[in-house]
Amino acid sequence: MIFIIAIAAFESTLLGGIFAIRFKDKLHLILGFSAGAVLGVAFFDLLPESFELASKNYDLKLITLFIAIGFAVFMLIDRFFSIHAHSEEGCQKSRHQGNLAAAALCLHSFLDGLGIGLAFKISPALGFVVAAAVLTHDFSDGINTVSMILKNKGEKNKAFKWLVADAVAPVLGIVVTLFFTVPAPMLGLILAIFTGLFIYIGASDLIPESHHRHPTIWTTLMTIFGILVLYLVIHFAG
User: Fold this and answer.
1) 130 vs 68, 124, 163, 185, CA distance in Å?
2) For residues 230 and 238, what is the distance between their CA atoms, to the nearest angstrom?
3) Residue spans of the chain under pLDDT 70
């Protein structure tokens, strides 16, 4: 059964990315939705899970510290190694920024797979609940990965390669759990770091970029829609 779920995660992510590539001319709206989706994942999925898992061994102050560390580390990497805000056409730094963000999203998808595999080791019932939550937002993960490449002036074939990597990542995460176990509190701290990272990506990158080129009410509404969709998806899945 767990291998069927792995295949479903791969297909869901792939379909989301193909959707983003197909409607590239509406990229500002996709970016707006992606910003909301990334923030929705951070606030409604990663944050509660990190508190639930890590609070068994660590106090809330330490967990929130790890959230801040995730935000600060990605900001420092972005600022000093790849960022070039609203960069000119053809700017290489902008492409590096897209690669960095896409890689972070792939790593998050890998952790999604770890979460599914570890949950099934605890109990099949918990495994199905976690799997349902992951599968429902994998579609948005595919959109987000492609959006990060396209908005940073990457080509469609490059976006598709990152999309495949993101689709494979949760499958690898599930397979890895067959060979070792990560303590739940430690996994909670890892999720806390990614909470801060996703807040940075959504609030400091995707929202400004979507509004920069098309400062219309529609991009804002799409961001709110993205947050709402992820809230509903995670709420009903969990």
Assistant:
1) 25, 10, 22, 16
2) 12
3) 80-97, 126, 129, 133, 136-137, 152-153, 209, 211-215, 237-238
Taking CA atoms, 22 is separated from 18, 46, 107, 147, 152, in Å, by 6, 29, 24, 11, 17
